[in-house]
Structures are given as structure tokens and as C-alpha cells.
Design a protein that fits this description.
This protein is 34% helix and 29% strand. With 262 residues, the chain is of the alpha+beta class. It folds into 2 domains: 145 residues, Fructose-1,6-Bisphosphatase, Chain A, domain 1; 106 residues, D-Maltodextrin-Binding Protein, domain 2. Helix 1 runs antiparallel to helix 2 and helix 5 packs parallel to helix 6.
């Protein structure tokens, strides 16, 4: 896509994210309908409503681009030249419990010259504090229109590192091991429950790194681009399974130290 089309896609994604975010704000303190609950995860009826709202707006502006989302996948998204990747509520468990740390994540992915999808547009919106992170590949990442960049901290003992605890047993075991390895080596560990916001916090220097194994593509597609455009290392590695990823994201200066202890 040309730059003008990417800008139009960014505007469409931002508008859709803000519409879903308004719905999230309205329902934060209300009783939520649970569609499915397992030991470490919850699926809400509002997840589905938010994705439908986002999809309607994106399809209106880009009728030829299908949506791959946490709450429903258009089969055409596997074969087309471009697709939206949507997490309508990232941090659903937080949101279900009334904790205002959750967001909307939307990315536009386009096939590169090798036929692989890459994110060329990314939007992460936190409706509870009104923060909108945006990125277009090759341009600076921004927060509410202001350019951002990753931290410049070079020492692990000065770093704040975010950990994610995915819902599967092996991922949880990996996270426990990372916690034990890092807890005495860093300034602070944070476990906050939203992958997309963890990426966004690395992108604008609040966190220095974010580690998690077993997250899904819709959790990382927008946030990883934010980190890349802010000068960091997204560190996303595909794992076995459909749309499953391991994350070793950092500011580009802590990679070797993290590798030694994680």
C-alpha cells in the first residue's frame, strides 16, 4: 500500500478502536455476560460486540480487507494480500473484574515480497486513560500524536520488565521460571495482564522489556510495530500452533542480558 492508503488505514483503525473503547468505558463497572470461563481466561459477550463494531467500521472503509480477530476469523484472511488483525479487548480478565487496564488492538498486515504478512499499521487504544498509540511502518511511533521512543536504559538492574502469564500450563511454567530468574536482577517486575499495553509501554519507555510465551497474533500484531517504530526490538517468534507467538521484547539495549537470565 502507498503512504496515503496507510494513513487512511490508520485513521480508520483509530476510529474503530475509539468506538470500541467507548463501549468498554460504558460497561467497565456493569455486570458482564460471560460466554466462556476457564481457569486462567474469560470470554465475554462484550468481546464479541466490540469485534463486530470494529469489523463494521473497518469493512465500511476497506470492504476488500478481511478481519482476523480473537472473536472470529474471516477465512479469507489467510490468502489475501492484506488483512486486519483485531483484539477487541486485550486484558479481558482485568476488564471483567472492573480493573481499568485493558485496551483495543488493531493492526493492518500486508504481505511482503516473500509472501509473509507483516504489520504496516498499528493502533493500541487504552480507553480508560485516553491514550492512543499509533504507528505506520517506517515512521515514528506516536502517543496521542506525540512522537515516542523506547528507553535508553542499558543495565538490567535499572530496568522495569513486564511478564505475561498465558493461560496454558507450559506457558505458565515458563513464566514462573522467568519470574524466578529475573526477580533479583531487575529494578521491578510487573505483571499487568495486557500484552498490547505491555508493548505500548515498552514503545514509549515506561517498561524496558516485556516477556511472554504463548500469546496470540492478535495480542502482538499492533504492539510489536509500535516497538519497532519507536526504536526497540519486538522479539516475536512463532511457536507451534495457529497464530501462537513467544515474545522477548525490549528497548534494543537489554537483549544480551535478558538472554542470560530468561
Amino acid at each position: 500500500m502507498k503512504t496515503a492508503e496507510l494513513r487512511r488505514a490508520l485513521a480508520a483503525a483509530a476510529a474503530a478502536a475509539q468506538s470500541a473503547g467507548a463501549l468498554m468505558r460504558t460497561h467497565l463497572r456493569r455486570t458482564k455476560k460471560v460466554n466462556e470461563a476457564v481457569q486462567h481466561d474469560i470470554k465475554l459477550e462484550l468481546d464479541v460486540r466490540c469485534q463486530r463494531l470494529i469489523t463494521r467500521q473497518l469493512v465500511r472503509d476497506f470492504p476488500e480487507v478481511p478481519v482476523l480477530g480473537e472473536e472470529g476469523i474471516d477465512e479469507a484472511s489467510a490468502t489475501v494480500a492484506a488483512r486486519w488483525v483485531v483484539d477487541p479487548i486485550d486484558g479481558t480478565v482485568n476488564f471483567a473484574y472492573g480493573i481499568p487496564h485493558a485496551c483495543v488492538s488493531i493492526a493492518l498486515q500486508v504481505r511482503d515480497s516473500r509472501g509473509k504478512f507483516r504489520s504496516d499499521v498499528g493502533v493500541v487504544f487504552d480507553p480508560f486513560v485516553g491514550e492512543l498509540w499509533t504507528a505506520i511502518r517506517g515512521q515514528p511511533a506516536k502517543l496521542n500524536g506525540r512522537r515516542i521512543q523506547v528507553s535508553q536504559r542499558r543495565r538490567l538492574d535499572e530496568a522495569i520488565v513486564s511478564l505475561g502469564f498465558a493461560k496454558h500450563a507450559t506457558s505458565l511454567d515458563d513464566a514462573v521460571a522467568q519470574f524466578a530468574a529475573l526477580t533479583h536482577r531487575v529494578r521491578k517486575l510487573r505483571i499487568m495482564g495486557s500484552a498490547a499495553l505491555a508493548f505500548a509501554y515498552v514503545a514509549d519507555g515506561r517498561f524496558d522489556a516485556y516477556l511472554e510465551k504463548g500469546v496470540r497474533l492478535w495480542d502482538v500484531a499492533a504492539g510489536a510495530l509500535l516497538v519497532e517504530c519507536a526504536g526497540g526490538e519486538p522479539g516475536c517468534t512463532p511457536l507451534p500452533g495457529e497464530h501462537v507467538v513467544a515474545v522477548n521484547c525490549h528497548n534494543g539495549l537489554l537483549g544480551r542480558q535478558l538472554a542470560e537470565v530468561s
